[in-house]
Write a structure and sequence with these properties.
Elements lengths: L2 H18 L2 H15 L8 H36 L3 H21 L14 E7 L3 H21 L3 E9 L5 E9 L3 H5 L4 E8 L8 E12 L14 E6 L15 E6 L4 E5 L5 H23 L19 E6 L5 E4 L5 E2 L2 H5 L4 H14 L1
Length: about 350
């Protein structure tokens, strides 16, 4: 098949994809954001200004990628139609590159959730397995940090609790970037590791568990209304490693949402007010996800999360001994290179999860 015909077919696919995400509507939204951010009085409210600027940048990036693909395919088709044999090889190479860019970009078509383009708040908790599990939790954290780096996303650490001998007991961090939550929601669940333990003298095979929670970051209190009377807020002294001020002031904050019994505790070296704001952001985020899962319009109707979704209900197994394999138990997608997966090569697992979700819908 000649380059012109292939380019025209690709152009048709690109335009169909643009229709499915309603790119013209997105361009109208961007025009509105451009007008708002051009208002010199906007920076009187810095939080709103930063939020609008981020929305503007994300939307501009999405639109620009699709329109650039469209123009590239159009240009290649028009040049190929001229029939200049001296350009044939170069045009074929350009078309292959545009096709690859399209194949990567069309993953966006799988994102249809209300919060898919939000930042993600990721929490990792060591489970059954003692020191091995705490080490496993740290391995998972490194895996997600490497994935975020490769995906050109930014990571902000929120809270971390070190393990007794090695690893971490828990960690919470924010991952920001295009469709951060839409992609990382695939990681929500229990992860199981099988390996020869480096923490016992007999070097026995050990099974460890860690729970990964992924929720969309909800910046605005307006998005999730929480009744103050439903909250119990405790302040206490921060523990663990830190500067001299860590254990001398009641800066740590624990917020409990009484109707659902969801607890968020934040302790670090920042002020009590900052810790409370962070805890409330995470609480809103958890409630928003719970609201989606339970298909409810009102937060007041929420039931607490199902505690059975804990150890034993693993979504993915990572086996390092006696053979090497990573297998997702929901999609059956697998890899025989766990070292690469643990170094952040997660895109194939994420894509298979998104494709299965789209097929079920």
């Amino acid at each position: 098949m000649d380059t012109e015909k292939l380019a025209l077919e690709l152009l048709k696919d690109i335009k169909s994809a643009e229709d499915s995400i309603d790119i013209e509507k997105l361009e109208t939204e961007l025009e509105g954001l451009n007008k708002q951010t051009a208002d010199p009085e906007l920076w009187a409210d810095q939080e709103r200004a930063q939020r609008l600027n981020k929305q503007q940048a994300d939307l501009h990036s999405r639109i620009h990628l699709w329109r650039t693909l469209e123009k590239s395919a159009q240009d290649i088709a028009e040049l190929a139609a001229m029939g200049d044999e001296s350009m044939a090889q170069d045009l074929a190479a350009q078309l292959k590159e545009v096709q690859q860019q399209y194949d990567q970009q069309k993953t966006e078509l799988l994102f249809a959730g209300d919060y898919d383009n939000h930042a993600a708040i990721v929490s990792i908790h060591a489970g059954a397995g003692g020191t091995d599990a705490q080490d496993w939790a740290q391995m998972l954290m490194r895996m997600y940090l490497r994935w975020a780096e490769k995906s050109h996303m930014t990571v902000t650490m929120i809270d971390e609790s070190s393990g007794d001998e090695a690893g971490i007991k828990s960690a919470t961090f924010e991952v920001a970037g295009t469709f951060a939550y839409g992609k990382l929601q695939a990681e929500h669940g229990v992860h199981r590791l099988v390996r020869l333990s480096p923490f016992n003298s007999d070097n026995l095979r050990q099974t460890s568990f860690a729970k990964v929670e992924v929720v969309p970051k909800i910046d605005s209190p307006d998005q999730v209304q929480i009744d103050e009377k439903d909250l119990k807020i405790d302040v206490y002294r921060s523990g663990g490693k830190g500067g001299q001020s860590v254990n001398t002031t009641d800066s740590a904050v624990r917020v409990t949402h009484l109707p659902t019994n969801i607890v968020v505790a934040i302790q670090n070296e920042r002020s009590q007010l900052q810790n409370k704001e962070t805890a409330m952001t995470i609480l809103r985020s958890k409630l928003a996800q719970l609201q989606q899962e339970q298909h409810l319009e009102n937060v007041a109707q929420l039931k607490g999360p199902n505690e059975q979704a804990a150890w034993g209900n693993q979504i993915r197994s990572y086996v390092l001994h006696p053979y090497k394999q990573v297998k997702d138990l929901r999609t059956r997608h697998e890899s025989s290179d766990p070292d690469a997966v643990l170094d952040g090569e997660l895109d194939a697992f994420i894509a298979s999860y998104l494709e299965k979700q789209a097929a079920q819908k």
